[in-house]
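Hi U.,

Before I forget, here's the chain from the pilot set. I'm dumping it here mostly so it's searchable later in email.
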Amino acid sequence: MKAKRKKLMFAFGTRPEAIKMAPVIEEALGAKDCFETKVVLTGQHREMLDQVLLAFKIKADYDLKIMRPNQTLSGIAERCLNSIDKVLVKERPDLVLVQGDTSTAFIIALAAFYLRIPVAHVEAGLRTHNKYNPFPEEMNRRLISQVAEIHFPPTAWAFNLLAKEGITKETIFLTGNTVIDAFLEVASRKFIFEGKNKDLVPKGKKLIVVTTHRRESFGEPMQNVCKALRRVALERPHDIQIVLPVHKNPKVREVVFAELGDIRNVKLVEPMDYVPFVHLMKHAYLILTDSGGVQEEAPSLGKPVLVVRDNTERPEAVKAGTVKLVGTKEVRVFKELSLLLDDQAAYQKMSKAVNPYGDGRASKRMIAFLKYWFGFENKKPEAFISA
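Structure:
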């Protein structure tokens, strides 16, 4: 007898979550014989979230609209818990899917657990083993692992960490990272830089794309990174251009504009929509970032990535040689940037189109596993083979 159609609820609220959930939602919508799909937005990244939904044509069934000016982590948690509880009670999904390590992902998982609704964790198993770095993400993802019924790690490294923590292997399924699914699809689209973006890709200059926004980077670490960028830009006014989409957080904007706002070959722009940002990375000579998502995406392009953090929960690309941890000290960041700009051998060594995080089929594996889990298919699908 065929299993009854199951209700899947996808709940998220930030731009990175939306990007990584989008291909899974699309795959679930294509399996209507098996699944009914509900999408819940928490909405704490309002503007950045909306443009991703538009890019991937995602329509929400619920929008909790929890964002407030100068919101605190406690305030986010309180509003999210109260709001998601009502939706869960009304819909009673068979499975709630949360992604990654945001505070709302953990709160949604907790609320579902309180109601004995199973949780699946997309991008499970990432760890630094330092609960304050990244903060609060490290504890969020560890706590989600404790309440989840199904775990979808992106790599073998993450799979093994979950198993070492005592999580039953039958509940862990290695998929690859869904961000690669989204990234490769968007990167394949035709795109022309025009309008406000027309001057971002310079002719005859090496483009350095920079992102910085993490909480542990606030203050002196971010200031050090910006000072290193300033030195590089002033020393090379004719052969490089730096483009830095500046996060909306006032703590980011204050530092970035103070250090870099007066330099001609540094373009400080508002946060970019996902599609043009992907194509900006395609044109980059190198990328400097503290973003987890960029660490995962850029190796697909064969672009060297310098990570301005002291540790990373994504060590696979470091091992592969396409990503290097450089910390946040001004001297070290300046030195590593200069090395890649001056030493062609060092650049070529890091410039490899090797991506250990996925092959663009993570979402298909995920939905195939859920079909097996719920009894729609008898055979367990093949897992991702992680490099």
